[in-house]
Amino acid sequence: MPLDEFDRKILAALQEDARMPVAQVAEHAALSATPVSRRIRKLEEDGVIRGYQPVLDPRKLGLELNAYVLINLDAHSDVNIERFESAIQDNAYVIACHAVTGDMDYLVHVIARDVEHLSQITLKSLLRIPGVRDVKSIIVLETIKPPLKLPLG
């Protein structure tokens, strides 16, 4: 679906604050509230806006450590892939997982309380998934730009 300038302004405003009242979004888009409301509904119906959720502060929830875990499977059979992906879906500390190109099969974003907790997640959970051959972890020292907003240009 092609987005026009008004749609982009609406989306930019909602990315700033999804709870922003329609009247305030309308100000950002330089439109009145009624067409903005219709456009938001259309963006939702078209799946451009997939939902609304709060952005939680992991540190306030006791989750101080971010890590990326690179995982290789021992074989790329359908059974291994399905088993791995199912186990990843069930792990609350895995907040994202991507199949990737290159030397590794998956890039898994893990959040943990501390290094010891990451070790438990890695050794007692991820490495024990049948079909996982090896795991490499990268600990995030500092987040320079959090992945919250999509480019709209």
UniProtKB/TrEMBL annotation:
This is Lrp/AsnC family transcriptional regulator. The keyword DNA-binding applies. Transmembrane segments: none annotated. It holds the Pfam family HTH_24. It comes from Novosphingobium decolorationis. Residues 3-64 form the HTH asnC-type domain. Keywords: DNA-binding, Transcription, Transcription regulation. InterPro entries: ArsR-like_HTH (IPR011991), AsnC-type_HTH_dom (IPR000485), Dimeric_a/b-barrel (IPR011008), Tscrpt_reg_AsnC-like (IPR019888), Tscrpt_reg_AsnC/Lrp_C (IPR019887), WH-like_DNA-bd_sf (IPR036388), WH_DNA-bd_sf (IPR036390).
